[in-house]
Amino acid sequence: MNKQRLIIRISRDGIMLSTTEEKNVTFERYPLNSGIALAANMREAMQTVTMLKDEYNKIVVLTDSPVLTIPVSLFNEEEQVKLYQHAFTHQEQQLVTHTILPDLNAVAVFSVQKDLYQVLRDRFLQVTYQPLMSSVWHHMYQKSFTGQHQKLYGYYHDKKIEVFAFGQNRLKFQNVYNVGTTEDTVYFLLSAWKQLGLDAQSDELHLAGQMADKEELKELLQKFLKRVFVSNPTGEFNRAPATLVEGMPYDMMLMYLIRSSLT
Hints:
This protein has helices at about 40-50, 80-85, 115-125, 135-145, 180-195, 215-220, 235, 250-255, and strands at about 5-10, 15-20, 25-30, 55-65, 70, 95-100, 105-115, 125-130, 150-155, 160-165, 170-180, 205-210, 225-230. It is an alpha/beta fold.
């Protein structure tokens, strides 16, 4: 009997997999062998990981490649490869694809390694790809309508922070920064805050993700900004099963927690 859906998350932190069995959310992390290619890692995972041996109605792959967002009105599929390779160098060996972000009236153009794409295609009949940030953007966009103050968002994952803001029903700011220290994170967040001209007393900074130093980070930021909030998904989603799974990234949790047009 086919299970409903398998979520595969691929990033520098490894291959992560999740599905549901009855009412339980199952999760497994497959560490990458840095000595072989990502596609070879996936082939080896398919030999040992039970979740990859089962059959599913849907396969959703969350990929952590760079993302180019384009307004729907300006998107031309025939131009996506040229635009993407112009925006991000060294992407010639990647398969460029896209997904629609209906809430934001935008299209996200991103890439998938060609060898990895072929390995997954050989194993599964139908695979849907999307940026791992899709669920985070959707959820934070919905939250942006609460209250009257402007908001800046930071999502920490895979040793980097994605910083973004919404305005006029779209992403008005989006950037990603590699961070090595808490001070790095503070610097990039405050730089984006200043660039957007936000008010240190009334506007809000919302943070999410697996930050080991979240209390120190919040304390440092509150020296400059009055309203800093750190997401607690267990409380926010009333102890939903996905929020109780140790090690599951926030973006994967949201695939179970939000009602949206996400696959």
